[in-house]
Task: inverse folding
């Protein structure tokens, strides 16, 4: 039993708490992936008082020099294509390695589409901005071994995040095109686009608001219990 306007006020307070909790979860997940190469932060989408869904912010992260020949950062809106067991997936994470068969693969072992095979005994690989890969043998001779198939999407918001750094189209009808405005930077990784300072400040602010809403709920519940007690004495 509630007295006066409490039901309406409490309902909106609870909705506010739910929204803050969802925002805290998103912010905490963003902070947990500050060091994940190519990670794109998630932001909440509101509908009234509720967070109905999250949206990925595809802004580019800063470039970090690593010196590794198989680290690649992308300049522009494009994506690498990865051949996974579940089908082709798209990523900005350019942290690759060579497997025992000479394939350039992700750290999980999934092949980078178009990268070809690096001959055994190669000294290093040279990756050109357009994605052409050349293996360098012990004599310093170059051999073209692959062409990374970079792609771009007209609207990246039609992609769904899968895991931490992979994306898949919302619909099979939504397909990419060969990249025209994207280039590869060898020896670099694109860092996550999460600003840890901003996210930390936001998380503190969200927690304070959540605590304030909790206090409102507790106060109103106490007032309601007192009102019920008083009615019981009058009966």
Result:
């Amino acid at each position: 039993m509630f007295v006066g306007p409490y039901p309406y006020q409490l309902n909106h307070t609870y909705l506010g708490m739910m929204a803050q909790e969802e925002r805290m979860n998103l912010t905490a997940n963003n902070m947990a992936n500050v060091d994940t190469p190519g990670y794109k932060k998630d932001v909440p989408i509101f509908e009234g008082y509720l967070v109905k869904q999250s949206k990925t912010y595809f802004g580019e992260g800063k470039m970090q020099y690593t010196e590794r020949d198989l680290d690649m950062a992308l300049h522009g809106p494009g994506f690498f294509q990865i051949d996974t067991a579940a089908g082709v997936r798209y990523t900005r994470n350019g942290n690759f390695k060579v497997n025992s068969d000479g394939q350039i693969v992700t750290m999980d072992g999934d092949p980078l589409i178009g990268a070809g095979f690096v001959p055994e005994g190669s000294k290093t690989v040279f990756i050109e901005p357009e994605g052409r890969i050349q293996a360098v043998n012990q004599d310093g001779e170059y051999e073209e071994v692959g062409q990374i198939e970079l792609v771009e999407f007209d609207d990246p918001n039609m992609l769904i995040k899968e895991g931490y750094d992979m994306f898949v189209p919302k619909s099979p009808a939504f397909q990419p095109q060969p990249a025209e405005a994207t280039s590869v930077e060898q020896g670099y990784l694109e860092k996550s686009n999460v600003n840890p300072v901003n996210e930390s400040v936001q998380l503190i602010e969200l927690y304070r608001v959540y605590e304030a809403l909790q206090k409102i709920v507790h106060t109103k519940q106490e007032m309601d219990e007192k009102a019920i007690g008083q009615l019981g004495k009058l009966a």
Notes: The chain has two domains: 6-34+195-224, 63-190.
